[in-house]
Design goal:
- The complex is a heterodimer.
- Chain A is built from ten helices and ten strands.
- Chain B folds into three domains: 152 residues, D-Maltodextrin-Binding Protein, domain 2; 92 residues, D-Maltodextrin-Binding Protein, domain 2, CATH 3.40.190.120; 198 residues, Orthogonal Bundle (MetI-like fold).
- Chain B is 60% helix and 9% strand.
- Classes of the chains: A alpha/beta, B mainly alpha.
């Protein structure tokens, strides 16, 4: 349970993100989906209850290790403006003392994976487009080959064409790597596109969890139907 | 960088140990400087290793420096000792009582030099004649006269407060200004009366009327040398050679040569000794303009360099602390802010009992003044980092110190550097005041120039100081290119915006 200013922002919630699957957190603004995501890598700590990573509690002394086994991508990338794409991607590896060659090799590998043109690797974030910045952000998240990827509205700030292009590439990456993915979106189309499991949140609690079909055919309450219908045109 | 550190270390060592056996001090008015030079010649003539800290501010600074052993000898006046230094203490009449009171503080007094340089109030002859003012009692009847008095005279117990009480002076319009500036203000008519010393060379030059102290308020101000009890007997004997040898006209003539004829203080003193005591004239070498400016530049750079480096080492962590702990930060910023409100001279004087005179108290004061811009800009620069960036760094799994080093400080580097630049330029200015307590630097020619009404000498300090400030501006532009990451210097219009 997480409280902000005396108000319960989230919970009680009991949720397991299945290993190797894509779990999508969806819901209207302010429903607590980003808050829930931040619990996974210890950016927030629950006021009550426990967060387990790989079966063990995310205790303060373990939080760095958990974060290094977790990639995190936010809306608009969160890239550091003083570092090039390469510098951003390599920051943690450098801190951990990786050799120059190993970093260069891994960066090239990841640039190919996320389809970032090689000449973009040495540019600064200010010299990259929004879509390219998200690709670099994904490289940074994947640098240490983490088991888990957390993405908070990764496509939220992009225009439709770039967005659909990146959607495809992103799904391709998820498929090829087989990682445990937790993705936050407010777009039901995107949720359907990525999600093995959809978790619909409302006022900090789980309204329903299941596949899109489960939600459509067997809605747990009228809110689920209302939410799906509000974006009907995209789902058909 | 290594050369810089080496230079700072050597400079620090010089500040620490380069001290002659006997150090003479003098106040920042010409007569005191000439008498200081006179003492220097006398002591050197006796074969002693002697130095002279010239133009060290006022009585307070010299007296504290003497007690602290920073200087061994300086010229003083009996009236000042009685009324200012030992004021508030019941001392019997006569010099004998004075000697006893000084001895209790480890200080001795030489034989009087011979002349009485009393305080007086003077007006332009024409103004005084027009208003019919001859005595201080006459002045008390003219409330419309604008007075411009030296700061020291305004504050001294035996100065204006006592005169006003004794003569019941009704004047409302009393301004404080520097003694050397007062004569020019008097001439231009912006003030009509000022305090002066009765041996000032300017009295004749500016055609001033010295108002008679008809109620005999001022005590005699016989010139003497004050020296520490532990001064070598040979030195004491050397100083006593001028006992009762300098008459009032002779002192006025020496002052006039220095101030009006622009003969160097040192030369004036040397010529007097050669004439009066018949000894070999002391040596007065004039280093030449380039050499002087170079020496001052090194002194000035040393003051600025050390204080700035120390400020950097302390202020950066403080800035980080301010940003991390907002409550502590408020206290820290408040404290370094309050320091800025203390006038530089007051701060310097406060430090003398603790740190003596010279570069150390000057550097300490400049260090304190340098803190605020760096602390504030560091805290602001760090505080301006968007929360999303901070969270990204945290989510990567970087340790707290790695986040600070690899992300936060580089992102705040531009603001931090701007703060350091502000501190550096301010320090170049503040360092000129260091000359008042013997720290040297560009303030030395500026002080001398004001004292001797010599614009050329003022410019000799002021121009290089301005040049140095500009140089620092330019230098920091270069440093910015190295320190501030290129990614932060990209202007929005220079950004390439490829599609896709």
């Amino acid at each position: 349970m997480v409280r902000f200013g005396g108000r319960t922002a989230l919970g009680p919630i009991d949720l397991v993100a299945a290993a190797g699957k894509n779990t999508v957190l969806i819901g209207p603004s302010g429903c607590g989906k980003s808050t829930l995501l931040r619990l996974f890598n210890g950016l927030l700590r629950p006021d009550q209850g426990e967060v387990l990573f790989d079966g063990e509690p995310v205790a303060p002394e373990r939080v760095l290790a958990v974060r290094r086994r977790t990639g995190y991508v936010i809306q608009d990338g969160g890239l550091f403006p003083h570092l090039t794409a390469r510098g951003n991607a390599a920051l943690l590896a450098r801190h951990l003392g990786w050799s120059r060659e190993r970093i260069a090799e891994r960066t090239a590998e990841l640039a190919a994976l996320v389809r970032l043109p090689a000449e973009m690797v040495d540019r600064f974030p200010a010299q990259l487009s929004g879509g390219q910045r998200q690709r670099v952000s994904l490289m940074r998240a994947l640098m240490l080959d983490p088991e888990v990827l957390l993405l908070d509205e990764p496509l939220g700030a992009l225009d439709p064409i770039v967005r659909s292009e990146l959607q495809e590439d992103l799904r391709e990456v998820f498929r090829s790597l087989g990682k445990t993915v937790v993705l936050v979106t407010h777009d039901i189309g995107e949720a359907w596109y990525f999600g093995d499991v959809l978790v619909l949140l409302r006022d900090g609690q789980i309204a329903q969890k299941g596949t899109l079909d489960d939600l459509r055919e067997r809605p747990a309450d009228p809110f689920v139907t209302r939410f799906l219908n509000a974006q009907r045109s995209l789902v058909r | 960088m290594r050369a810089l550190v080496a230079w700072l270390v050597v400079g620090a060592a010089m500040v620490g140990c380069a001290r002659p056996d006997v150090l003479v001090g003098s106040k920042k008015f010409t007569e005191s400087v000439v008498l200081g030079d006179l003492a220097e010649h006398l002591l050197a003539g006796a074969g002693l290793d002697v130095g002279h800290r010239r133009e060290l501010g006022g009585t307070r600074i010299l007296w504290d420096a003497l007690l602290a052993g920073e200087i061994d000898v300086y010229p003083e006046y009996t009236g000042t000792i009685r009324e200012e230094i030992l004021s508030g203490q019941a001392i019997g009449a006569g010099d004998r009582a004075l000697v006893a009171a000084l001895a209790a503080r480890g200080v001795r007094m030489s034989r009087p030099l011979g002349f009485n340089d009393t305080y007086a109030i003077g007006m332009r002859e024409d103004t005084a004649a027009r208003l019919g003012i001859r005595t201080l009692s006459d002045l008390a009847r003219h409330a419309e006269v604008t007075l411009g008095l030296s700061h020291e005279f305004l504050d001294r117990e035996d100065g204006w407060p006592a005169v006003r009480a004794r003569y019941r002076m009704p004047h409302r319009s009393v301004r404080g200004l520097d003694h050397d500036v007062a004569y020019r203000a008097l001439e231009s008519g912006s003030i009509q009366a000022t305090d002066l010393y009765s041996t000032d060379a300017e009295i004749r030059h500016y055609r001033l009327r010295v108002l008679e102290d008809d109620l005999h308020h001022f005590p005699p101000y016989h010139a003497v040398y004050l020296y520490r009890t532990d001064l070598a007997p040979a030195a004491v004997a050397a100083l006593d050679r001028v006992g009762q040898r300098i008459s009032e006209p002779e002192m006025i003539a020496m002052n006039a040569r220095a101030v009006l004829d622009k003969v160097g203080d040192c030369q004036v003193a040397a010529d007097f000794l050669a004439q009066e005591l018949g000894g070999a004239p002391g040596e007065c070498e004039d280093a030449g303009l380039a050499r002087r400016v170079w020496d001052r530049t090194l002194e000035h750079l040393f003051l600025v360099g050390v204080s700035l480096l120390a400020a950097l080492i302390v202020a950066l962590p403080l800035g980080v602390l301010c940003e991390r702990r907002r409550q502590v930060g408020k206290i820290v910023l408040g404290a370094v802010g309050v320091v800025q409100t203390i006038p530089a001279l007051a701060l310097l004087v406060l430090f003398i009992p603790l740190l003596g005179i010279g570069a150390l108290p000057a550097i300490t004061a400049m260090f304190l003044y340098s803190l605020l811009p760096i602390v504030r800009n560091t805290a602001t620069g760090l505080g301006d980092i968007p929360p999303a960036m901070r969270e990204s760094a945290e989510a990567l799994g970087l340790t707290r110190s790695a986040r600070l080093r690899m992300v936060e400080l580089p992102m705040a580097s531009r603001a931090i550097l701007a703060g350091i630049k502000t501190s550096a330029v301010l320090a170049v200015g503040t360092a000129t005041i260091g000359a008042l307590i013997g720290a040297g630097g560009y303030g030395q020619p500026i002080l001398g120039g004001i004292r001797l009404d010599d614009t050329g000498l003022i410019l000799e300090g002021a121009l290089p100081a301005a040049g140095l400030a500009l140089l620092f501006e330019g230098l920091f532009g270069l440093v910015e290119r190295v320190v501030v990451p290129r990614g932060l210097r990209l202007q929005p219009e220079a950004r390439q915006r490829p599609s896709g």
